[in-house]
Amino acid sequence: MGSVKLVICDLDGTLIDTESLVLEVARGVLAQHGRALTPEALAASAGRRPLEAWQATVDALGLTEASAQQLYDESEALLKERWQSAQLMPGAGRLLFHLHHCGVRVGLATSTPRATMERKLSAPAAQGLRGIFQVTHCGDEVRHGKPAPDCFRAAAAKLGAAPEDCLVIEDAPSGVQAAAAAGMRVVVVPSLPDRDAYPPAHPNAASGCVEVLPSLYDFHPERYGLPPFADTLAHGVVPVEPPWRLKGTVVKGFGRGSKELGVPTANLDSESLQGTLAEMVTGIFSAWASVGPARPDGSLTPVYECAMSIGWNPFYKNEKKTAEPWLLHDFDADFYGEELRLVVVGYIRPERNFDSLEALVARIHEDAAATHEALRSPRLSAAAADPLLQPQRIAVLAPP
């Protein structure tokens, strides 16, 4: 395959995390009509133009008490107030600014109407993206929305790019189908948990799905003849910028960290992290950590290196998404019930399954070595001084 000359990105769920906002509003709107958003309805609506997405939802649910237009009107009124809080998807800013800095042409092809796209790109987290796109094409500017190829063909035509010279980055099945129909290669970063909703990857294909990635942290531009990232650290660790900050209570876990793996991981209360975990991509990360209350003498709370997994742990087939940090320090006692604070600064690798327990243990120790080296780089070491890692002292007032 030839080198890519134009990268065309989808917007929602690929570059900007508007999907969580849309799902929250959609569930609320449907609840007012006595209905729930099913996985089938979600899969049918993903990636489509808003009104068409609601029609797909109505059809999937067999909804008769409200029309797609009514549901669209109700949801849009609520979403207008929320676009300003949209955040970039993990790795999106890194990729876009890298391509722009290297002179690679970047386009945007979205099902979103132009007026709504402008509101989304005016969110504080997304404002820096405007100058990157050399072409934008929106859902209300084509006759047929995704899964039809119109928006991708139009974006490429504006810049005179042939389909075989384009690479599309998409998250939704309808967008993948649209890009394939346009004769373009597609890198898929799925937003739906059901991987069967996506076609298998064929790396050498002239069009269609060529790669499926857990997140944009796993994208390697050089595979497509594009300039490689310049910020990758030792062991392939990718800086997480801005860092993720989370804290939670240490609870008893599955009891396998120390017993089976020889790795004493701390398990965080999933309920206290529910909202935070839902927004985090899965994988293995490097972090700075501290645990316990502020010291009575006012001295700084120790900060430790930490390797951690976020996800479902394929080897053990967890049913619930968890965060399992391994503080790289020998402690004299456990710290159940204590507050654990984490500043996540590096992405090591995606989650994967292993053929044996021994292979898993060996890889965990490799991740620890990668963490140890990466956290010593100037780019990641400064986060050890993050204020989150120092708990607030509670003032005790003397009785009158």
TrEMBL record:
Keywords: ATP-binding, Flavoprotein, FMN, Nucleotide-binding, Transferase. This is riboflavin kinase. Pathway: Cofactor biosynthesis; FMN biosynthesis; FMN from riboflavin (ATP route): step 1/1. It holds the Pfam family Hydrolase. Its EC number is 2.7.1.26. Residues 243-376 form the Riboflavin kinase domain. InterPro entries: HAD-like_sf, HAD-SF_hydro_IA, HAD_sf, PGP-like_dom2, Riboflavin_kinase, Riboflavin_kinase_bac/euk, Riboflavin_kinase_dom_sf. One of its GO terms (biological process) is riboflavin biosynthetic process. NCBIfam families: HAD-SF-IA-v3 (TIGR01509). One of its GO terms (molecular function) is riboflavin kinase activity. It is an enzyme of class 2 (transferase). Coiled coil: none annotated.
